[in-house]
Design brief:
5-stranded parallel beta sheet, Flavoprotein, catalytic activity, 7 helices, Flavin_trans-like, Rossmann fold, binds flavin mononucleotide, single chain, 16% strand, alpha/beta, globular
């Protein structure tokens, strides 16, 4: 069963929609889920009660913290990463290589690796989209081979699973 590195940031709706619109459909497509949340996303999901539902979809621990030195790596290497929803802040940090939490650490290590597919799905407000550095961040990510697919609070997120190169059962 192929491993999907599912990463989520603190965007509008993540505390209600991540399980039903992304994680469960991905598991149903055969992916073994290695889920990493930003610290803020984890706080939101715990507060909404969705964290435990998410954790029940996978045999791997849902992470937001780094391991201690000497601890085994809790996740195997994913064959693909899906960052959804990706906040303006975390997308900018990814483009700049700022790995200041576990979610960004796994994404920064995967970006630029030709053997690992990376899909990034930013959800930005019109105000966030106007930031002058944003086009450069998108160009950096696309130049590194990432597939960038914006998502919206108004549309179901599930369609971004179609942008993954394989389904979970295609590769061991
Ligand atoms: C209710 C609420 C909804 C938010 N929705 C978004 C959003 O959809 N997109 C976004 O980029 N930031 C959004 N933000 C701002 C982010 O949560 C904020 O920038 C945060 O620092 C992102 O942290 P993270 O990327 O580490 O998860 C929202 C904040 C709040 C309080």
């Amino acid at each position: 069963m192929a491993v999907l590195g599912l990463v989520a940031a603190a965007c509008y709706g993540v505390d209600r929609r991540l399980h039903d619109e992304i994680a469960r459909p991905a598991a149903e497509r055969g992916w073994r889920l290695a889920i990493t949340l930003t610290p803020t996303a984890e706080r939101w999901l715990r507060e909404s009660g969705e964290f435990d539902r998410l954790a029940a979809l996978t045999d791997l621990p849902v992470r937001s913290q780094s391991r201690l030195p000497g601890q085994a790596r809790p996740h195997p290497d994913p064959s693909a990463f899906l960052f959804v929803p990706a906040s303006a802040s975390s997308t900018a940090k990814l483009a700049l290589g700022i790995a200041d939490n576990q979610a960004l650490t796994v994404l920064c290590e995967a970006l630029g690796n030709p053997r690992v597919h990376v899909s990034v799905c930013p959800q930005l407000s019109p105000e966030q989209l106007r930031h002058p550095a944003w086009p450069g961040h998108l160009a950096t990510l696309r130049g590194a081979g990432a597939v960038v697919t914006p998502v919206s609070p108004d549309q179901p997120w599930t369609s971004v699973l179609d942008a993954l190169p394989v389904t979970g059962t295609d590769r061991p």
